[in-house]
Protein 1
Amino acid sequence: MEAISLTINGKRVSCPSGTSVLTVAEANGFRIPTLCHHPDLKPFGSCRMCLVEDEKSGRIMASCVTPAAPDMSIQTASPRVLTHRKNIIRLMMAEHPESCVVCSKGNRCRLRGIAAEMGLGETGLYPMANFKAVEALNPFIVRDLSKCILCGKCIRADHELVVAGAIDYNGRGFRSRPATLLDRPLEQSTCTFCGTCVSICPTGALSTTLSGYVGSPEREQVTVCSFCGVGCLLRAGAAGERVVEVNPAGVQESVNGATLCVRGHFAHDYLNSPRRLTAPMIRKENELTPVSWAEALDSVADRLLEIRKAHGPQSIGFLGSSKCTNEENYLFQKMARTLIGCNNVDNGGVLSGRPAFSVIHERTGWGCRVNPLARLEQAEAILMMGADPGQSTPVLSYYIRRAAQKGIPLVGVDVRKTDLTPFAAAWICIRPGRDLEWIYCLTARLWKRFGHDATYIEQFTQGFGPYCDAVSAFNPERLCMESGVDLAVLDRAVDLLKGRKVTFIIGDGIMRQRQGPGVVNAVLNLALMTGSLGHDRAGLYVITRENNQAGAWDMGAVPDALPGRVPIGDAAGRRRWERAWKVKVSPDRGLNMIRMVEAAEKGTLKALYVMGENPVLSLPQHERVSAALEGLDLLVVQDILDTETSRLADVVLPGAASPEKGGSFTNMEGRITRFDPVVAPPGKSLPDWEILDRLGQTLGNPQPFRSVEHVQEEIARLIPPYGALNPMPDDGWAWLRHAEPARLFSGREDGPLIPFSALGDMNGDDGDETYPLTAVLRSLRFHLGSGTRSGCSRRIAAFAPPDGISISPEDSRALNVSEGDTVRIQSRHGSITRAVRINRDLLEGCIFIPTGVRGNDALNLVDLADVNAPGFEGFTRCRVQLKKQGGADEAQSH
Ligand code: SF4
């Protein structure tokens, strides 16, 4: 781009043509006050605070919307500019309520800050306070539009960043204000309560609930959200040792910029829940009794060693956490492998589709792990499957909405419509469990229409011919009929994808179902066929539900791999770790989380150490899991909250939440982010890495780490993709480094080719007379996973997210069920009772059940089994029947 030069306050500066005067001035160290400007929003020029003067033309102009021009001579604070600016702020202040003393924005109010900087005392104008009622109708956002200065930031953030379309200007002149359509309450609009408007508001017009009387934050620090796999950067504000406020960190190049979602923004109040564990406890006379750390750790070590001596190392299990840090998961698995001698280590990621993730890792290595979400907005086309990011990973959904807004074709495929359906150029509704059918159909149609990349296939892949012959042999009409897909809609999708590099987004609906690994193989084949893997404007994004699901696996908190994802059966890889740790490592694959519960039921597992998971609630079949854990000789639970699992424990060790400790997380993009503590852990609780380090010493480790940095040093030294963890760049994050990438990721001529895999088995769901409906189980945006943490949020609890099931109008008529009726949903494995909502966007024969609510009891409908166990349907769907409760017409479904 052509460079131009101009003068600002007497200094000669240059910038690319098209740069605004404000941007070039700020880049050169000149500060210009602004109210309506935000670097992530389009320039608006409404507040006129950024006025500057061009000495040459004599013009006064808003610098945010004026492009710099050659030979301008700009003065940012000339007497004329200051007079105008002061008059504007006087007018604003005259209209502003004088309630600064009790305003939750306090000293952070930009309006007040600018007025103070300009030395504005009395306005000298007759007060024209524009009083409006304070609205605190929902548990998240308080609106006091008397303080609104009409900067439009909330509206523009809604339209440009979150793309929710919930609010716009309403009224004219003095009555103008931001409002929803028809001025309905926010909860009746498309608002998702992400809180972006609250953080971006420069005054106290928008604030969070529960912020009154807690005091303004005394200090703020950047940390990482510990809910979902997006891993947003937060700015946590603390008063004393309590986190009292959370806002987006607004850091350039961060995954979330100025946005968050309802969980990240508002559910952090779980940190101050009365259910926080604050002291170590040991069960004495059947009561959990507070004890000292020394007594608790001695007790855990003594009993673990006794059990190992009596029953062998395989009688002990370690359940780590996809919510704990990399450092903690590393220490946890190291304790299991080197101090106890077993590979019975797992984390909650097994419930989020690790077998399907393994397929990607086995076929592409670390190569496609780094996928910046920012690339989505430069994609050529997006194909999203089995995903509902608006609920599971909302910040990811903002990227997709913005991409669609820019005209990037979005094709969505799912068993139901979601809030992204209106953004899609084509939306394919499929029958549950019929993913392979439509993917093969799409593949065959693309191939027939020359939608493949012959050069790429030749250069980077092998085995395309036989694969394509097999796919082409299918009858598309029959595949579409079996999967419930409209062939015309599928062909529309083919037209949108043909000749483009495709960005694939795969969600829970695929990863957590029985056919997950087969479907992922088919998607990878499609990605290879279209030449999309390894391309800058395409790639493969797999949604990770938990914040550190990827990191926990990388750190080896899994039963079949050592740190660095080295397979436990890889003798050379195992020897490398044996040399590093100076111990023998068992070559036997350990038990995963579900097998540990089964082993506890059989009595072969005697002790279980659970860190940061609540298996009683997160696993299916709560009573069965409880009974299994109660039968153990020793249950140790290290957690931050009093949970359904900790209540069964023999020893409870209180850990720390992420704002209370240092460490790192690895998000779904392959970004490692390091963070430091914002506040101290409550009571006697300790950072989890410190508990593990101290316990390791008690168990006989002669070389404790003593600091989280020393753990990071070892990880960086021994796990090459984590080499950037120590020393970490100053901005606190780095991408995973590729280790042995395939040829298409490395550009090496002699790298390995990626083979097309054989076709998977299309063993769809063929129906069942006793259980004629298919229940689809997924969480809503207010809760994640089992809802253990979000269930402790006062705001989320007060909002009472919808917990009813949804059924199609066709099924409601067939079952004689109306909106609001109570029904009993029965599967082969359990039953629940819920109110009914009729949803026109559901296919006939399919019902939707939200998880994470009501003690996550929906999981009682699902079997407790490995995802690849024969007959298992997966964690996201099951066959059910439905009976209306009460009344004369209580009748079995269909
Ligand atoms: Fe936290 Fe995920 Fe929401 Fe970001 S999208 S704020 S990481 S829950």
Protein 2
Amino acid sequence: MSEILGKPIQFLKNIGPGRASILASELGIRTYKDLLYFFPIRYIDRSKIYKINELFLATAEVQLKGRFTEFKEIQGKRNKRLVGYFEDDTGMIEVVWFKNFKWITQTFKTGEEYILFGRLSKFGHQVNLVHPEIDKAEDFQKKHALGLMPVYSSTEKLLKKGITKRVMQNFVRELFKQTGPHFEETLPESVITRHHLVSKSQALHHIHFPPGLNELAKAQYRLKFEELFYLQLQLLLKQVHRKRNIKGFVFEQIGNYFNRFYKEILPFDLTGAQKRVIREIRKDVKSGRQMNRLLQGDVGSGKTVVAMMSMLMALDNDYQAAMLAPTEILATQHYHTIKKWSDQLGINTALLTGSTPASRRKIIHEELGNGTLQILVGTHAILEEKVKFKNLGLAVIDEQHRFGVAQRAKMWRKNITPPHILIMTATPIPRTLALTHYGDLDISVIDELPPGRKPVHTFHIYDHERKKLYDFLRKEIAAGRQAYVVFPLIEESEVLDYENLENGFKRLQAAFADEHINIGMVHGRMKPQEKEETMNRFKNGEIDILVSTTVIEVGVDVPNASVMVIESAQRFGLSQLHQLRGRVGRGAKQSYCILVTDRKLSDEAKIRIRTMTETNDGFKIAETDLKLRGPGNIMGTQQSGIIKLKIADFVKDTHLMLTARKEAALLLQNDPQLGHPAHSMVRKVLKDIYKKTGFWNYIG
Ligand code: ADP
Ligand code: MG
């Protein structure tokens, strides 16, 4: 059996080398097995035959049974068409063709019984059928038994080579003829029984040729379950492997730094969620195994303090700590926050970014090497080969979605024993995605905002309503608040975007010309020093309105800012909008986010804007984002190895994903080595997967 599935697809009847190479390049189908696992994208219900007089009830696709009474060529205004008059015992409908007249009139005869299948279209106030599929009634019934017909995804090229819907169906039918009805079971009996799954053989047959909707649903459920089960099993194995094999530094004690910070410096009480997360981290770092923890917390939930306290655990045990941020602005800001605290504790802290001067760099390298530098904050610059620590105990990576997997891996190699890793992300990741993409990490969630925060009020206005906006800004600024005005910057149209930014800046200056309102601007083309100066002036209140590109997107913390205006908001993605909005609402005052767009909004943009005005909940927003864009885009292009699912769906099958994960965990718990004979098929499937994908590198 498995031998036949390994056979190259060209040997299947009617395929041959030419079609085989097209099937491979267009659909990735190379072997019998690939075809077997090439599931239909949808099904056409051919069990129902409509009567012509009930067509008004029908939606798009219909099937009719009857006879042609006449074919007639008709000259229209622009082109000729061929009309066939098709009758059943209840009425008549026109069937229309725009080409192949000769072939049609020669092939189809009046008076013979046919089955037509096609899409209804409106023609004036008449419905007709354009270019339907036509079968002789007799043949058709023999062949298809009028059930659900599979439709496989196709491409132009395939159609050109004559590989139509029909032909694909025939390939699969032929495949089943050769393989026979039986396929090896790939899930343990116990799992099948517990979840009432149909057998592998039945699932494979019914997914391609379902006898009915019920059977189809069962086949789909079984195959989705299997897919998610093996996905989760791989992730869990990865986690087990890491925990078993990768030793971590042991931070024995909570010492002076941590305690003094907590008692003397921390300016507020930690939220319950912050405390819980710190306990989770504490447990990890003293366990003797390397921590690899993802910390999720919505914008403003207070991740920085958690990072600081984690780093202090390292320092208390004579290790160094590092904190990485994706942008210079953010790194600088973290540096200032952390330095303020460190100075009070007598901790030596430095900032390393792309623009750190060589002379300063030299000192940093030296102090890192001899261990006198205790905390290093910085950008990607930290990852460079020549940056060597004496004993890096913990690396905190902020805003992980900007970093790729490869960069995470680089951090590991800074020591022989890898440092503990804490990844912080403010982009809430839907649970399904977290479980797959970060399935091998432990996850902590800060699901509580510091007390006193008021949800940000979000409004949408059109750009001709700017006057209202200016009045509003005036009022807020008069009350002592500050505002951001953000413009999109999308690389492909960079020049234009900078123009927009400049124009927006000038427009604001003009609008507030005779008033005591200071307007500043930051963008990526400025020198880091200028950027920092402007940011500082905004921070200490000298600037009232900060016009900027998305350089301020992540992490900037100016609690007095209460208005976030987002220009051309339709051009931003949902998570970006949410991040931007997170820049306000950080103090106790009521804050506002105003989305400005033009009138031409795509449907998707409308959903994004509406979502923003309706909710502040980062997880809800992430779910919507996932629905709109799919998982690949959410994780960003830098994230290699995005998992593609064949049949299950990250959004729709969340529940099933959790069930499958539980089942996989249970299996590993009962049989960690997968050595039990009842689980031999699991070992076999995993072996096949690894043969294909290569044994993972456990850093991913
Ligand atoms: P983020 O999770 O977005 O990185 P920050 O760490 O920047 O959030 O924290 C946002 C703001 O909330 C900061 O001004 C911080 O000082 C403040 N903050 C953090 N934790 C608390 C708390 N427990 N109580 C009050 N304010 C807090
Ligand atoms: Mg932050």
Protein 3
Amino acid sequence: MVQVNGNYLKLKAGYLFPEIARRVKAFSAAHSQSELIRLGIGDVTEPLPSACREAMKAAIDEMGTVSGFHGYGPEQGYFWLREAIARNDFQARGCAIDPDEIFVSDGSKCDSSNILDILGLGNRIAVTDPVYPVYVDSNVMAGRTGEAGGSGRYAGLSYLPINAENCFEAKIPEHHVDVIYLCFPNNPTGAVATKDQLAAWVDYAQKHEALILFDAAYEAFIQDDALPHSIYEIDGASNCAIEFRSFSKNAGFTGTRCAFTVIPKSLKGKAENGEMIDIWSLWNRRQSTKFNGVSYIVQRGAEATYSPKGQSEVKNLVAFYMENAEIIRQNLAKAGLKVYGGKHAPYVWIKVPDGMDSWGFFDLLLAKANVVGTPGSGFGAAGEGYYRLSAFNSRENVEKAMQRIQSL
Ligand code: MLT
């Protein structure tokens, strides 16, 4: 009989968000009158910018003509989109990133998992705890870990705790690791990194010949221009970092699907025989074999985010969600809860009241306020005792959710 990949059997019950959906479904079935407000998964709710819609409509019309029809596109993305990204997101901030160092894709979740294809199995991996669960689960699936222990932590991974005591700033490891996942603005804690903090990681990576996998999916939510949006704002980062970016959260593309990964050509890894290898070439080879690119129509939509109209609409969307975050922060603080994040990120990270755990608080808010959030323990053992609310919802729902929580 066919054998399955035994690494999948090491995974804990279910991916966090489907598990929440399962519990919410069971609750709704038993309480059909309850009107739930979902502030759990970080999925956007506001309509797509009209600049993107217009560009996509025009692209559909083009596709209906012989001269404007597009079949397979380049696996790396159309050059005009890669150029717009390089110019607006990197060169405008002083980062020397070229268009051909940008690989357009259908999502950062996919890219941050798929990147493991080109990295050796023997690498020692570090993640923060709590952390976006995809980084951990994709390493488990790839066979880079042992079994999960009692706390849910997998043998073989290095966990770097982040909590209120260390201001959600992971301590740079004293031991050697080969790959470090960093996410700023952070999912789930909403923390943000300064240039000095990122420079310390780049310094570590250079000394240890390590690779930083930098997830900047939420960079558009940074409110202070002195804070870095890209790891390439730090000297030396293009020799030790890969960056993941997305149109999902800034331009509402969670359902439309478009993202990109930056792999500088100067980035090197080592083969088993010690030979230096270009990481860019391996990723290019991987994408050319396993990926057929993002649709022409969607890439035209993504390109439109860089037009003057698109830029202004994206700015308004981000401002709208950040006002939601502020409403959540203020109301929960008034309700006597300790809140973190939500200033440069669309996530508010909440310390649950004494005597409760994360799932207990999740169940309480679900049952008594009909509000769905995300239990902090779902992001890792050190997330126990915390709870995350997302600012992605309508103003009306956010205000209603806050009234319900206040009145508990
Ligand atoms: C989350 O809620 O953490 C996000 O939905 C993550 C994601 O974008 O996959």
